[in-house]
Design brief:
The structure holds 2 protein chains of 2 kinds. Chain A is mainly α. Chain A has 11 helices and 1 strand. The longest helix of chain A has 48 residues. Chain A is globular, with a radius of gyration of 25 Å. Chain B has 2 domains: 164 residues, D-Maltodextrin-Binding Protein, domain 2 (3-Layer(aba) Sandwich), CATH 3.40.190; 131 residues, Periplasmic binding protein-like II (D-Maltodextrin-Binding Protein, domain 2, 3-Layer(aba) Sandwich). In chain B, strand 10 and strand 11 form a beta hairpin. In chain B, helix 11 packs antiparallel against helix 12. In chain B, 42% of the residues are buried. Classes of the chains: A mainly alpha, B alpha/beta. At the A-B interface, helix 3, helix 8, strand 1 and helix 11 of A face helix 1, helix 2, strand 2 and helix 8 of B.
Chain lengths: 291, 354
């Protein structure tokens, strides 16, 4: 009798053990899939593109002769656009998140409405932002097809993401910290400034990294607002016309000559390198903020 | 300690960011107005001098490689002239051109009546210049040994809306009964407009159950990997991928003719060769010496530069007549609505419609 019960328990345990292992295996498979895709992507890009990256490639303007073509204008254009987007989007995004999490009246219809809208905006296709930017910044505000107009359009594109991720980071800060701060006589501003924001900073930074990475990889909205594909001068200010790396890649990859396909792969390597530098910088900053 | 400092830094950068936005906002108004006055004073300089200023070009992505090539070559001597060349499509280019935002726009078809109307409303006049020929090639897989020549009627049967053609046998009875896989231009491209007009007879009228892409390289990949496929795209894409593709001769009633630089240029490769255009804003031509010099440069150098871009140059005479058009400031179009089968030089000599 005892023996039978033990056996039954054991088979049940076995079955549960198998289920446990199966789940673990499925999770591993998912990770493996992501890694395999990433590696094959990197391999295909690096094998054709890495040889193309040289000082000539980095310091030349586009050319009709693939061997002479370069990404100088595109790199500078991308850095300008992403830099100004960061400068505009980060303060506005974080401030909006702070308002929605720390100041909003709970259960108010208006804030709920705002919240739903922000979530929806995060899912709007990027080309729609391009059309909005064209009317709003290029035509109405009269900024022309400039870096500033491009950056403001990109700001609109990434704002919802910055706000949502920052909100999540603020939500993760324990209530007790706020209560302790108030208990010591701090005002709401002091609580946010000295307690809540510093604790939420690593999470907010993650959101900013992801958003800016998206901004540097977008081309559709910038093509819509009239970013150029060939430019013979480097941008010197926010009112200059510009091109960015994704537009250059898009153009080269659609050309018939094989040399341009290689140049496109080379430009992708450059774009990946810039992304990597940006992300590692942010990770270092985040690690310092955690300390 | 570190924490304290970091907090100070992050706060400072927040303030700096806000200041930067305001400064940027203020600047934008000033410098755009100075730019305009600069453009005005430049008008007094002569072409012999070093030119400055800027030239803004947009339009068809088919014409883009040509605009890029000329901008690059012109910039070698006149490095102070700033070029901005975009490619937002023939229609998109004409919209900006009609709003007076461009000096030059490229087009893979002649300007349409509605586009002329839009330009008129803003008092924009234009000089029309054909600049090169583009041939559309009909392509099959290299393993395909039966389809050497297709007639325009057969191509129409394949591509017309609600086409009954499912297998190669449906095209011609001695072809094998293998399903035919079709690859063609996406509906937003000028190539699609041109092919449908030339083959089916009506612009944008095509069967829809085919692999469509705006990117001709995707079509090259498709046809080269599919034994019983048929596709059409720009001749330059065939030229660069000859080892992977097989050209089909097109028979428009005078026997099968394969596209080549010669047959495209002399018009025997009909009906699938088309002229590409540049439209010049007359005001820019009058007021901006850099635009005038650039137009003269491109008509003089077209013979050498156009073939390097994968397109076919026009007969020499056409460029000479085009330069006369520019010198006499002949505005309007003589290509819009023109019947097919007339040489480019004859069309250039015609009265223009304003």
């Amino acid at each position: 009798m005892n023996f039978l019960l033990l056996r039954r328990l054991r088979t049940r345990a076995n079955r549960r053990w198998v289920k446990d292992k199966m789940f673990e295996f499925l999770c591993q498979l998912s990770v493996l899939l992501a890694v395999v895709i990433l590696i094959s992507l990197l391999w295909s890009v690096f094998s054709t593109g890495f040889g193309r990256v040289s000082s000539q490639f980095l310091t030349s303007f586009p050319s009709r002769i693939p061997q002479n073509a370069g990404v100088k204008a595109a790199i500078l254009g991308s850095l300008w656009v992403v830099g100004i987007t960061a400068v505009v989007a980060i303060p506005i995004g974080v401030a909006a998140a702070v308002y929605l999490e720390e100041y909003k009246i709970r259960d108010s219809k208006l804030t709920d409405f705002i919240q739903i809208n922000i979530s929806n905006l995060a899912g709007v296709p990027s080309i729609v932002y391009g059309l909005l930017g064209l009317e709003l910044f290029v035509r109405l505000a009269g900024l022309g097809r400039s870096i500033l107009a491009g950056s403001l359009t990109m700001t609109l594109l990434i704002l919802p993401m910055v706000i949502i991720v920052s909100q999540e980071a603020l939500k993760a800060v324990p209530r007790t910290i706020r209560e302790a701060s108030y208990g010591l006589g701090a005002t709401r501003w002091q609580t946010i400034r000295y307690q809540v924001l510093p604790s939420a900073l690593p999470g907010i930074m993650t959101g900013i990294i992801l958003s800016l990475s998206r901004a540097i990889g977008e081309s559709a909205p910038l093509i819509t607002i009239g970013a150029v594909t060939y430019i013979s001068s480097i941008p010197e200010g926010v009112n200059d016309r510009f091109t960015v790396l994704p537009i250059q890649i898009f153009d080269w990859s659609s050309r018939p000559q094989k040399g341009f396909q290689d140049a496109a792969a080379g430009a992708i390597v450059v774009l990946l390198a810039i992304l990597l530098v940006m992300n590692s910088l942010a990770i270092i900053l985040r690690a310092r903020a955690r300390r | 300690m570190v924490d304290q400092r970091l907090r100070k830094i992050s706060f400072a950068s927040l303030v700096a960011a806000t200041v930067a936005i305001f400064v940027a906002g203020c600047n934008s108004g000033d410098s755009s107005s100075t730019e305009k006055t600069e453009g005005g004073t430049n008008a007094t300089t002569t072409t012999a001098e070093k030119l400055s200023g800027s030239i803004s070009i947009d339009g068809s992505s088919t014409v883009f490689p040509i605009s890029e090539a000329f901008s690059e070559e012109f910039g070698k001597d006149q490095s102070a002239v700033k070029f901005a060349v975009a490619s937002s499509g023939t229609g998109g280019g004409f919209k900006k051109f009609a709003a007076g935002e461009l000096d030059i726009t490229g087009a893979s078809r002649p300007i349409e009546a509605s586009e002329i109307e839009a330009a008129k409303k803003n008092n924009i006049e234009f000089v029309e210049l054909p600049i090169a020929f583009d041939g559309l090639s009909v392509i099959v897989n290299p393993k395909n040994s039966f389809a050497e020549t297709l007639t325009v009627a057969e191509l129409k049967k394949i591509w017309e809306p609600n086409s009954k053609v499912k297998t190669w046998k449906d095209v011609r009875s001695d072809f094998p009964a293998e399903p035919i896989k079709l690859y063609g231009a996406g509906t937003d491209s000028g190539t699609f407009d041109y092919f449908t007009k030339a083959i089916v007879g009506k612009e944008k009228s095509s069967r829809t159950d085919y692999q469509a892409s705006e990117d001709d390289n995707v079509l090259v990949q498709g046809v080269s990997g599919d034994e019983f496929s048929l596709g059409y795209f720009g001749y330059a894409y065939y030229e660069q991928n000859q080892d992977k593709l097989k050209l089909v001769k097109v028979d428009a009633g005078k026997g099968g003719i394969a596209p080549s630089p010669e047959t495209i240029a002399d018009g025997t490769y009909a009906p699938l060769s088309r002229p590409l255009f540049l439209y010049i804003n007359k005001k820019s031509l009058d007021d901006k010496p850099e635009v005038k010099a650039f137009v003269a440069f491109l008509l003089a150098k077209a013979k050498e530069i156009v073939p390097t871009t994968g397109y076919v140059q026009l007969p020499d005479e056409a460029y000479t007549i085009a330069q006369e058009r520019v010198d006499k400031k002949v505005v309007g179009t003589s290509f819009q609505g023109a019947e097919t089968g007339i040489t480019i030089t004859d069309l250039l000599k015609r009265e223009t419609v304003k």
